[in-house]
Protein 1
Amino acid sequence: MQLGLIGLGKMGGNMRERIRRAGHTVIGYDRNPDVSDVGSLAELVERLDGSPRTVWVMVPAGGATQSVVDELAELLSPGDTVVDGGNSRWTDDEKHAAELGAKGIGFVDAGVSGGVWGLQNGYALMVGGDEEHVQRLQPIFEALKPEGPYGYVHAGKVGAGHFSKMVHNGIEYAMMQAYAEGWELLEKVDSVTSVREVFRSWQEGTVIRSWLLDLAVNALDEDEHLAKLRGYAEDSGEGRWTVEAAIDHAVPLPAITASLFTRFASRQDDSPQMKMIAALRNQFGGHAVEATE
Amino acid sequence: MQLGLIGLGKMGGNMRERIRRAGHTVIGYDRNPDVSDVGSLAELVERLDGSPRTVWVMVPAGGATQSVVDELAELLSPGDTVVDGGNSRWTDDEKHAAELGAKGIGFVDAGVSGGVWGLQNGYALMVGGDEEHVQRLQPIFEALKPEGPYGYVHAGKVGAGHFSKMVHNGIEYAMMQAYAEGWELLEKVDSVTSVREVFRSWQEGTVIRSWLLDLAVNALDEDEHLAKLRGYAEDSGEGRWTVEAAIDHAVPLPAITASLFTRFASRQDDSPQMKMIAALRNQFGGHAVEATE
Amino acid sequence: MQLGLIGLGKMGGNMRERIRRAGHTVIGYDRNPDVSDVGSLAELVERLDGSPRTVWVMVPAGGATQSVVDELAELLSPGDTVVDGGNSRWTDDEKHAAELGAKGIGFVDAGVSGGVWGLQNGYALMVGGDEEHVQRLQPIFEALKPEGPYGYVHAGKVGAGHFSKMVHNGIEYAMMQAYAEGWELLEKVDSVTSVREVFRSWQEGTVIRSWLLDLAVNALDEDEHLAKLRGYAEDSGEGRWTVEAAIDHAVPLPAITASLFTRFASRQDDSPQMKMIAALRNQFGGHAVEATE
Amino acid sequence: MQLGLIGLGKMGGNMRERIRRAGHTVIGYDRNPDVSDVGSLAELVERLDGSPRTVWVMVPAGGATQSVVDELAELLSPGDTVVDGGNSRWTDDEKHAAELGAKGIGFVDAGVSGGVWGLQNGYALMVGGDEEHVQRLQPIFEALKPEGPYGYVHAGKVGAGHFSKMVHNGIEYAMMQAYAEGWELLEKVDSVTSVREVFRSWQEGTVIRSWLLDLAVNALDEDEHLAKLRGYAEDSGEGRWTVEAAIDHAVPLPAITASLFTRFASRQDDSPQMKMIAALRNQFGGHAVEATE
């Protein structure tokens, strides 16, 4: 089938390639003319034959996605379908579905996992929306997903795809934190000769074997003590939203939240709160404080 | 080769079977005569031919392991080797090595992972000790470990095996907590039709695919909403030791520790600390309290 | 001076009393005619002499406050001032200020602390808004605040009052949790004869002496082991908002967030996430699970 | 009465002064001859008249305390009493009591709070030991404690004093963390004009008023944004022991533990665990990493 794909960055570019390899026609648009197949969104919509048309949006969550949805609401026709495959907050999905639905345009939200490995291994897809809209996209979902029985789910109503992907990322935060904590502790112990070899051994037969563990071994093979890296980690929004959703539902998420907070702390050159701790210790105990340089 | 194996419970019994399948001779001893090959530890040692003899101890950590080590120190001869494959605290290993070493008996500590799946898939082994003692055990380690390049590591000096296994379990706690938190949050959201199917889809193509995730799907297939289970979890000691080791080394372990604390809380019928919170809220705000029945 | 006061519940009723004791005129309105001085909001506004009028809103945050603000926007005149002294989210303040400002009506937000002790001890006030509006209210703030140099601050622009009060409550959560954790641990130890007497002794000379500690001793005097209480605690919204604000600003709040999560957990009859932990332990280790009754 | 006092550092020196002001005789010993009243422990014991003698040990916990106790076991006589007022781990107390008890010497453990303010305000005392030994020390306890009904407790058996003091310090960690988190969050918000003034206002009428809050205001008066301090905090051992005791008793301590871990993290120039997070993000997502300089 034919698909319009908006956003050809690290993710979108590889997805175009994977869908084409499956024999579908993809017309891609990106603001960067070097990678774009067409010169404008309007041209992309024109180039899509007949009706119904299907357009996949793969641009940054928030304002960028909103403005593409606004444009598509003008350019598309009743019966067409828009898929938001970006990392949008699930609360945006209902708004987009309503805005497009008012014009008779269908909306599907798709959480996409797979990162730089997706072109080769396939992208896991968590999809939300009405059955009729989801059904229309099925050939594209089949092209993108990994082979085998897993890697795709119609998770529920509009928003369920992004919500599931968001929780996936929250879990990911805590799993990464789990390995990271274990790694730091093992590195501190004199009796262990090579932490890297311990990690490598865990890849089979253990309870904690996983793809993330395989990646950790790859990373340690490149730089055994990660000496070239700073202990600095961004967060992409989905960890934050997971905690906010948990607060809305009064669900305690101690491990996921701890994993988010260590990232926040990793980006501080000096910790304001620990200045206050140092100040208080000095006040009551006369404990020495360290001065900034 | 020939191995004496002490402790033929859930783990030891299956290990005897797997080692025998690899063509080795195992003489097993257990206090339970139904499963034991010999009537006593002394008989087990006598039945092992010639020298050097090798005895694998697979009994509960702490007192049980200590008393077996004490007996073996009397029964074995210089040049023999003892392996402690139980879940001993790494700090016990040096004591056992010294006690046996004083008699010329070698000591190796082995952290063993694999649970009820080990007979079929192999047991992951993290081993600590001197190269000469570890070398002597190599055929047994080969028999126990999974096929393929992973699942075995000589982690370092005496204690390094149990330390690595302990950290493995700490990581395991936080990974389980990660999936558990995500599952609870997804179950709270109306838009998601089936959390089980979302979990199932994650088994391929996602960043969080893992063996624990596969097990979670198994569990949800047996009981989709885990309605038959109480939210009650024991802890086996290794999570506690991981946190204690982290404290010794001043390593922050927020996610692993949170995972330990949720287990503690799960075993309380009512939370004493939350009684105090309720009491304080009542004191300053006149907030209603709930009475015990 | 003259003040209209809307909302005469546990807080508002006592505040009316304290302001009157200071010699001011308070006309109070409440939906409950037993405590109300007037029959309607319109009547309250009419009864306030001349201009400018000042109306203090002390109703539940959210919808109730919004609808009172909407009504006041219609009833009041340019130059009048509205104070929101409820537990509104700071993000509502700018909206209310804009809505009223469009009619020339001033807006001040006031975070109020003091609970059931406020009538006697005074209410601590954290106030946000333009200097001219805050100035107009000064006699009322003086009447409400405790004697002495503390207990009142003009914290900043519109929203700063509620934001400061919200952080106050976040800190309160973690302080309560601190005492609660310590209390539970002491209660577990055989060597300590009376935890209540230990708490009592801490009221002077220690680093942790505080008003909350005094309240804890009061509570233990009423019920030494809090045996009559359930370990169940509501949360009022401000703890949640504190964590959300921290996430917005990428500030790690591990202790405050932990304190919020223990409250969430205290309200669950059984923990869904711990069911998953139990299920996973059973899957990989054959560990026994507890069935629901 | 007459007291031998060993250790005349920041704490011991001031305690000698406070006890003398109350009219008692103190013979102090310190390795530093500039502050010592006698030249050796032996001389100190000799100088104490008759029997029973009472010696207060105020030296660093661990090896230093142990060696003083060992010496005193040789120098003192049956019927004498030793008080350990240092920050010893409660588990040491039973050992010291047994060692001294074997010679007929009594032992009392005393947790002492008050820091640099103790000389002026008095020291809070949490005391463990047999009633007969505690009774003998009563005049000294009276001299040290603050005026008024609080600040002293005979908490229970040997060890109960240090255990109570340890929990006191654990609570202190989490209270400090509570204020520190709130301070950092307030400092991030543009609408709040002066966080220092907000803190100052909290000193009366609020739920969170406390001595630590007063100290925080002092610190902010000296350096409004704590710009001169590094966010670096040592920990003295008692926070660690609190968490270890909690683990022994399966008590969840999320806020206190979080407060300990933020201190650990504050002392790391770069976070090893966050290097692993950065490495994993790079592996699966191609996310940029920051290189060490």
Protein 2
Amino acid sequence: MQAPEEIAKAIQAGDRRALSRAITLVESTRADHRAQARALLRAVEMPGKPALRIGLSGTPGVGKSTFIEAFGLMLIARELRVAVLAVDPSSARSGGSILGDKTRMDLLSRAPEAYIRPSPSRSTLGGVARRTREAILLCEAAGFDVVLVETVGVGQSETMVADMTDAFLLLLAPAGGDELQGVKRGIMEIADMILVNKADGDLKSTAVRTTADYAGALRLLRKRPHDPEGYPRAKPVSATEGHGLEEAWVDLTTLLNWRQAQGIFDQRRAEQATYWFRQEIEEGLRSRFRAAPGVAQQLARLEAQVKTGDITPEDAAEQALEAFMHAKSGLA
Amino acid sequence: MQAPEEIAKAIQAGDRRALSRAITLVESTRADHRAQARALLRAVEMPGKPALRIGLSGTPGVGKSTFIEAFGLMLIARELRVAVLAVDPSSARSGGSILGDKTRMDLLSRAPEAYIRPSPSRSTLGGVARRTREAILLCEAAGFDVVLVETVGVGQSETMVADMTDAFLLLLAPAGGDELQGVKRGIMEIADMILVNKADGDLKSTAVRTTADYAGALRLLRKRPHDPEGYPRAKPVSATEGHGLEEAWVDLTTLLNWRQAQGIFDQRRAEQATYWFRQEIEEGLRSRFRAAPGVAQQLARLEAQVKTGDITPEDAAEQALEAFMHAKSGLA
């Protein structure tokens, strides 16, 4: 095992294999790996200029891989280095995520300025959050200018990704008529930009019309008092023809530059860190509670009584909590 | 202080003042009161036939007080005893809730078959949930056939009330055109029935049209696989003229009888109790964590470091949790 400082140096020097191994390390839930991961994260230094962390989601079949490839190559052409992380909280599903999709992003995956990391095969949402945040930090330490965090359209994971990125892109397909494709309102609400893909060929006019519908929906849905006029916004793009990608990037950086100038960018990151701190505490309390000697059996017994109404939820909770507090003092 | 068994007996015998005092007791957060409240809740016996717990919410200005008065009197005319509890999680707002609205429900509040309990003035949502659940139990023990739990339209409190009732009624006003009045989708999703009030006079045809719009929205929004065909449903009512109230009640009891026959009614209550058991544990863990000696100072220091990025959220959480686990519990 290399010293954390050495691994940190290698990552900061641009060593891809060191970065990959480090991400594998933060993905592990083994106690000794967690300790090493924490030591590594303490050792890495963040760059003076922060990477732009961009969340990205899209409905199935919208052409997300094609979009990421085209968008990534456009960024590289602008001399930006791009990391792509995938978040797939459900191990069962494979479609929609870039899990194993490196082959579908052939050009991008071979570009030396890009780094693509598929999501690991097994995971829970809680673990995914921690792992993804840590992988973002590592990519940022490795000097990438843009960290794209891609997720599948399952709702909860979008919110999670939005809570760890600086802006959120939603990629949607052209829709016939005025239907909003069953896009969850909660997801619309977190989007800083909606891009309607496939604005090419026969679908071009539909895509333009759909964009207008979404733009209208965005105006109704939300006001973010601190953002400049016209955000969140919707634009048509064509990933296959490369149209609109530069414009989307300009729009996005205009928003982020504004937020940086206003101090909102840093404030958001501080709030996100605080949020995750609290989430980690809650998760840690839960796991310590469940792991305390004797608590699990108590829980099963009490839950059965609660179900039949033999005990009130609060009485049962009191008993379980007392068992935990006594078990805890025994350990200390 | 009376023995819990005596208070329980008085409540079960229909003593209104005993019920009111008992609800005041469960509303208190004082430790000794909580202990007494728990003893009381252990002592009361639930009736063989459960009360129907009905959640109710509505947009401001929809005529909720008028509706509750008319609906309650209709139930009384059907020889049912009705308790009305109000949940107002925000102490600041007064409009919308029946807080202090007994005077606006003049006839109902004077009926011996009805019991109206305004929400207390100060509260947090967590405390409100426990208190309301316990007040529902007390009203059920007191032999009320229907317990109406009214809340204001703030989103979170509706979900909370839906998680402690057997059915949820949403009262809405007639709207011009096809706009869904900005009713939050999450609230639509928990409604078993939408009643469009003010289906009288000039607004009658608008109310009927609005009802059709909501009925369409409900069909799109949700399928509850266990419910009979046609639920959730939307109907027009006129609280001032008394139209549609009987029909709404028949619709509601048809649904609940179906659920009882299918075993879904009991299953839902068991799931709700389990849910609140888990919530109480989470809340209890949080409060014990915050109250542990030395943890509060640690938290403040760590949170400041997390904000500046000097420590990762997980490292900080680990430190705070270790402090908690090692803190000598004053209680143990």
